[in-house]
Predict the 3D structure of the following.
Amino acid sequence: MNKKFYITTSIAYVNAPPHIGFAQELIQADVIARYHRLSGEDVFFLTGTDDHGIKVVRTARENGKTPKEFTDEISEKFISLKQALNLSNDYFIRTSDQAKHWPTVKKIWLQLKENGDLYKKKYKGFYCVGCESFIKENDLVGGKCLIHQKEPEIIEEENYFFRLSKYEEQLKEIIEKEQIKIIPGSKKKELLSFFNQGLEDISCSRSREKLEWGIPVPNDEGQTIYVWFEALLNYLSAVDYFLNNDKFQRFWPPDVQCIGKDVFTRFHGSLWPAMILSLGLTLPKSIFIHGFINVDGQKMSKSLGNVIDPFELVKKYGVDATRYFFLREIPATEDGDFTYKKFEERYNSDLAKGLGNLVARIITLAEKVIIRDNSPFAFESQIKKCWQDYLIALNDLKFNEALSSIWDLMSFCDKYIEREKPWEKDFEDQSTINNLLFVLSNIASFLRPFLPETSEKIFLQLGINPDSQEPWKFKIKKGESLFPRI
């Protein structure tokens, strides 16, 4: 049986349509999933939407819709990203799914309660609707939530609490010993610093009178399970924890969990592994945290009118151009900046003038010769170096560096063409073109996880099947320009 690989993204909150921040996370996860599939592994790639919470209810009312109508509409847009961004996810989960998610959450709740990790008490605190969580007073800046820049509500009610404090020392040891690998390492230090401030038990339910849209607490119909508490459990319900032991045994634990930095420290870095410890399950192997995307130096927001729609980008520039920008322009674990000018500059220099032009030059030259199947090929050392650099970068989740290694190989090809000037040679002497075709076929292979549509188009022009076990035999058929200049 092939080695398994389980990868997840965070599940998107459905109070608004998709934006490029979540699109970037999906694209990054897709590259990882495709790379592991191409390596022969049995991959399960999960994404989905978080449908519950007060913020969703309020936004639905503002739009004159019920929470179900609103979440059905918005979730469908997130589901549509699979086709728009050419994603390869195996499953899309919704937390409003009463057939799969709800039964799992309820059984886990009862299990956590039986373990003594849930208890009920009265509580008064600062609640940020944007974060969908209680926050400490010392986390406020000028009386406002640092992330959402809004004053929190003061809420007093009786809720259930999860004994997060119980796992403080155990979590410290886990992170220090990298039993869960945190990528990048700077986030490991940040998480340990958070632990050193002391972990408090966390509210994990809300009054049903105030929040009916959500999963009822088992055996207590007056309470609704807190949105973040049950949302994290999607990673278990998606692999049929409690429902299908074979699938769960096959894929658990997650190998990589891709998330944004805003949901790391409190939730994926603290609450999530503590819940896993309480359940007695194997911990996730790694958590990969990406940064934020600003637009022309400013945070994306509806009020500024600068939210970028990924569907519009794909419609205007194409799916692989969109994938390429977010993988190449923005280092995976850092904040990045989007402008249309930057996008078009990267498109013209790297894709139109770079990759598209190289493919067109080689295919045009190859059309004029008869390709011999047994022709010798050169440049194995250059290809080997590219492959080594590519693997190191990709295994470290440095997508921009992996792509840079491919573009270095392309630059080598351009210089080789200029030096050899094959158009000036007798076309019976085809060694130069044979060498170029061989390198181009490798470039197309390297591109498969990143630009799958473009890679396929190159293979079609070369007339070869990349998955064939037979030696490649080029049958040139020139196609349309891959990336017309804009």
